[in-house]
Amino acid sequence: MTDSPPAAASRIAAPPLSTQLHWTAHCVRSVEQGRSLSDVLPQVPSALRPGVQALTFASLRQLGAAHAVGRRLVQRSPAPPVAALLHSALALMLDDPQGQRYAPHTLVDQAVEAAKASRGTRMQAGFLNACLRRFLREREALCAGLDADPVGHWNHPLWWVERVQRDHPDHWQAMLAASNQPGPMTLRVNRRRVSRDGYRQTLQDAGLVAEPVGDDGLVLATPQPVDRLPGFARGHCSVQDGAAQLAAGLLLEGCDWPAQARVLDACAAPGGKTAHLLERADLDLLALDVDARRCERIHDNLRRLGLRAEVQCADAAQPAVWWDGRPFDGILLDAPCTASGIVRRHPDVRWLRRAADVDQLVTIQRQLLEALWPLLRPGGRLVYCTCSVFKAEGADQVAAFLGRHTDAVLRPSPGHLRPGNVGGTGGLPDNVPGGYDGFFYACIDKAGP
Question: Are residues 416 and 438 in the same domain?
């Protein structure tokens, strides 16, 4: 998911804001009930989806503040559909003025119209109108003291704020602020089909400005629908953050491997890193994922890009079920994690995760590392990565692994990359608009015999 760009809406007449707010409240309520936006957004009518997604993302980025203000406005919480519409409207009015899409009075009027149009909320339209108009009159007083409320100020759950503060004491405030900003749209150019400079010129000819990042990346000045990207359907590029594009180079560079080296991409879906490896080298590559539907996405991405790999639906932690006994030269383990580093692109994640999830995912990561390490030949390389900023899923996990395996040698690695490139992490260029997603990388070689 990415924030829907204004260009997408400018080509067709925008649907009524009241209708968009109705669906935005539906999405916000679903997240509050524990459902992922990836499951909820497809339920939104396709003509409404770009606008609703943009409004929902903006609402979720201010949801902590909206809840805090809502508690000051209302002594007794209204019915969930009304509360969701109230919180959505408040969040949009609390957004950074430079990022606001509509004037506050317009939001109030259209939120009330949305309430009137829905059987579940029409009886409370007057209540909603009174609450929102009171907010307009008393905004300064109602927002006073939000800085002392960590959830209201940082718009992340309290346990999340405290963990980031503990793990990154010198950067935690900037990291939380960066996580509340939309990430840039970054492309990975398929070097097998077009050069990066050539594709950048193609974008320029189409009126799209882009700056290079990394070995194969281009950061767009303005996000675009993929159908506006020249050659996208023909596999000339993919959408992938600059931090995620580091994986292929870390696994491949400096390795003295045979031709058609045997490589495993564990937990591979949707296949972005699989494809990047194949764009950069001729490999005998096995891509695994435990989810059959997500395996189809790997197939789809490889077909579009003109690449080939063996794809299996299997649990990487159970090699007895799928491994043929031939050792791998390289293993990429992009392990399941909290996704705490990519909340600027998936703002629902912060409200869906619970503190207990961290320990559960750490256990899964450890099991995957232990299951896959014996499959790597001596002299081979394993790259462990997560899109998490929590040290339990990164630096601490790898330190424990190295302590258990005397044949594991940690190479120079980026370690924790902080979202927005806060603090210039990992030696990445610091002049990339919007910076990078939060990630962790460890490059581990297996000692020879």
Answer: yes
| Other CB atoms within 10 A of residue 117 CB | 15
- Residues carrying an active site annotation: 387
163 part of a folded domain: no
Query: What confidence tens digit (pLDDT) does each residue in 290-319 have?
Result: 999 999 999 999 999 999 999 999 999 999
Residues 389 and 358 in one domain: yes
Cα separation, 110 vs 386, in Å, equals: 41
In the chain, the amino acid numbered 324 is D
How far from each other are the two terminal CA atoms of the chain, in whole angstroms? Answer: 45
What tokens were used for 98?
């430079």
**What distance in Å separates the CA atoms of residue 357 and residue 36, rounded to the nearest whole number?**
15
Q: Are residues 97 and 204 in the same domain?
A: no
Q: How does DSSP classify residue 329? A: E
Q: Which domain holds residue 431?
A: 246-446
- Sites in the chain below the pLDDT cut of 50: 4-11
> If you compute the radius of gyration of the chain from its CA atoms, what whole number of angstroms results?
23
What is the Cα–Cα distance from 188 to 244, expressed in whole angstroms?
Answer: 10
Q: How far apart are CA 13 and CA 10, in angstroms?
A: 7
Q: Do 297 and 204 share a domain, yes or no?
A: no
